[in-house]
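Contributing new records

If you add data, match the layout below exactly. Sequence lines come first and carry their own label; structure lines follow with theirs. Keep one chain per record. Anything else will be rejected by the validation script.
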Amino acid sequence: MAAITVVTIFDVSGDEIDQVIKLQDDCEAFVAAQEGFINSKFMRSQTGEDKYNVVSVSDWQSRESFDAAFSKPELADLVAHHPRFTHHRGFYEIIRDI
């Protein structure tokens, strides 16, 4: 199992930006405690006028560890009271680190 980087971009604007950040705040401790989690960065556009105003980049020991963490009912419970946001997620392997 190879380490992976997960990039999630959120297609949000206006008040939705703060709502996505609140969602991240509510889930942060749970995700960070999961087996296989390495680290993450959660970024917000400086202007709020970009196509994707919120981006999450996280590193995991494997795709399997990510999938296991994100399939737990506890995480579903944490996000249940939040609105659904349009987002796109990709799984990447590092081919060069400079």
